[in-house]
């Protein structure tokens, strides 16, 4: 690599990391589902073990998840305060994508300029700018594309070891690692159909990956498989909220998140690769896109994960398009403008993508400072093991800030009658009948009800319809309201 290229790549990495951190710290809190991971990291920091038996989630339940990400962050939490580490490290991991995509793009094009453009593009991609999302995906995404790069370099022995190491970590990080196995399987099939030579190393690595992945998943999820059967694929998600996980997003909405220019370019490159150039390395990327799209279509993969993977792949495919375009310009009368072409492309990407990127980051769904203050009030002013009603997405706020039992959160596996619980939660916000509300609070042992601005907006409420001074006492009265349940169903005044 030329020295100037190295400086440009470091500059892109630093600029992307700076922008991500700036946005992360301008937005004070994390996304709602981040608080599950924060709580797990804190528990590992304190005890050395994940919180697999959680006394607060769903009023007490067993959890099953892959813990590598949480152990990694717990290690850093001994150096930095947890919430500071949770903002810095995931954004650092995501910024590393610029370097990984540079090397992947260079592998495909053997051109530094094209690879730098792809690295810059992935750094500002809107679908990746959930800067306050403390999630496993922040480690999973860079690792899976690093594994793909290693796979493309398998004839070199050191990359075989890098691939095996990264795949092992992936298998301990996220069940979505099966994407790479399915993608590699489709890649080998496409290569066979096109009469491309398939290396023995590739077939052996695929089989090894399959067995390692299945073995690790069985170690961790055996009980889930036995208890939930084939439905474990859908993570026991209640039917009424499946739409939130697999939304019917519009084509325009999806294009906005991956950006118009990469989307159009991706279609062109895929067409040329399949029907004209037939590039073996691009076959692998296309195979991975086919795998994620198919799994998302059959509701086996969350839509946002599929869209993220698709967007990153488009940035890699941008490199061969850029190279072809520059080579074409060299043969035309516009060749005198060739030295300025990278700057023109960069400027076009900036003005078309950066506004969407900043808007995506700014519209992340995070709790307000007032909501966090209200849940902290629960910790300081309510008895331990108190049951608290909140929205589904706020359940992790109850357990993380309030350190109290919730009715529900977004960890659904191994929960019996999960749909019935969700219906009860919904009815406690919507019913007008006090007797029904008290029946549900008794059934689930709830002593406090929260009504946040988010809940008011979601259900069109200003207060619970069944609240009366005889049975409910308002104990916290700011933007978020908290009510204490004072009587049981048998004690309702007549």
By DSSP, the count of extended strands is 7
Low-confidence stretches: none
Distance between the termini: 82 Å
Name the strands of the widest sheet in spatial order.
Answer: 4-3-5-7-6
Shape: elongated
Radius of gyration: 25 Å
User: How many helices in DSSP terms?
Assistant: 21
Order of helices and strands: HHEEHHHHHHHHHHHHHHHEHEHHEHEE
Structural class: mainly alpha
What is the residue-averaged pLDDT? Answer: 87
Give the amount of beta strand, in percent: under 5%
- Secondary structure: helix percent: 55-70%
Q: Which sheet architecture does the biggest sheet show?
A: 5 strands, mixed
Protein architecture, described:
The structure is a single chain. The protein has 494 residues and is mainly alpha-helical. Helix content is 63%, strand content 5%. The protein has helices spanning 3-26, 34-47, 68-76, 82-95, 97-109, 112-123, 137-152, 157-171, 178-193, 200-228, 242-245, 251-258, 260-277, 280-297, 303-330, 341-362, 369-381, 395-402, 418-430, 434-443, 453-459, and strands at 53-54, 61-62, 387-389, 405-406, 448-451, 472-477, 481-485. A five-stranded mixed sheet has the order 4-3-5-7-6. Strands 1-2 form a two-stranded antiparallel sheet. It starts with a helix and ends in a 9-residue tail after the last strand. The mean pLDDT is 87.
For this entry, give a set of tags.
mainly alpha; 7 strands; two-stranded antiparallel sheet; 494 residues; five-stranded mixed sheet
């Amino acid at each position: 690599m030329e020295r100037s290229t190295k400086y440009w790549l470091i500059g892109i990495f630093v600029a992307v990391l700076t922008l991500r951190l700036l946005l992360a710290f301008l937005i004070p809190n994390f996304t709602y589902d981040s608080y599950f991971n924060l709580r797990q990291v804190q528990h590992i920091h304190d005890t050395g073990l994940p919180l697999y038996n959680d006394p607060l989630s769903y009023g007490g339940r067993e959890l099953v998840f892959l813990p590598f990400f949480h152990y990694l962050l717990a290690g850093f939490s001994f150096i930095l305060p947890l919430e500071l580490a949770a903002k810095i490290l995931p954004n650092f991991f995501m910024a590393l994508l610029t370097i990984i995509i540079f090397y992947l793009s260079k592998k495909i094009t053997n051109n530094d300029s094209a690879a730098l453009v792809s690295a810059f593009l992935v750094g500002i991609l809107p679908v990746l700018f959930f800067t306050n999302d403390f999630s496993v995906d922040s480690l999973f995404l860079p690792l899976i594309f690093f594994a793909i790069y290693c796979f493309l370099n398998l004839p070199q022995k050191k990359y075989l070891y890098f691939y095996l190491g990264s795949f092992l970590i992936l298998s301990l990080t996220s069940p979505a690692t099966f994407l790479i196995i399915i993608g590699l399987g489709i890649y080998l099939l496409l290569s066979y159909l096109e009469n491309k030579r398939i290396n023995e190393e590739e077939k052996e690595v695929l089989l090894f990956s399959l067995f390692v992945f299945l073995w690790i998943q069985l170690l961790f999820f055996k009980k889930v498989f036995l208890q939930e059967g084939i439905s474990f694929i859908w993570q026991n998600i209640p039917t009424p909220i499946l739409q939130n996980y697999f939304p019917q997003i519009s084509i325009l909405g999806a294009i906005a998140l991956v950006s118009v220019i990469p989307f159009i370019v991706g279609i062109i490159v895929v067409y040329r690769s399949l029907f004209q150039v037939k590039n073996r390395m691009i076959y692998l990327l296309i195979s991975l896109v086919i795998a994620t799209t198919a799994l998302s279509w059959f509701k086996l993969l969350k839509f946002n994960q599929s869209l993220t993977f698709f967007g990153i792949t488009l940035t890699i495919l941008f490199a061969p398009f850029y190279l072809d375009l520059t080579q074409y310009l060299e043969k035309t009368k516009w060749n005198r403008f060739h030295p300025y072409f990278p700057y023109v492309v960069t400027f076009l990407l900036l003005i078309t993508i950066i506004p969407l990127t900043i808007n995506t980051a700014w519209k992340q769904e995070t709790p307000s400072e007032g909501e966090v203050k209200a849940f902290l009030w629960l910790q300081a002013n309510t008895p331990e093991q108190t049951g608290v009603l909140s929205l589904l997405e706020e359940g992790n706020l109850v357990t993380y800030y309030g350190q109290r039992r919730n009715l529900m959160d977004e960890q659904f596996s191994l929960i019996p009658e999960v749909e019935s619980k969700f219906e009860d939660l919904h009815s406690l916000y919507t019913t007008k009948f006090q007797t029904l509300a008290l029946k549900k609070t008794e059934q689930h042992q709830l002593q406090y009800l929260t009504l946040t601005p988010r809940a008011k907006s979601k259900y069109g409420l200003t207060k619970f319809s069944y609240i009366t001074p005889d049975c409910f006492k308002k104990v916290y009265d700011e933007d978020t309201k908290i009510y204490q349940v004072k009587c049981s169903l048998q004690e309702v005044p007549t």
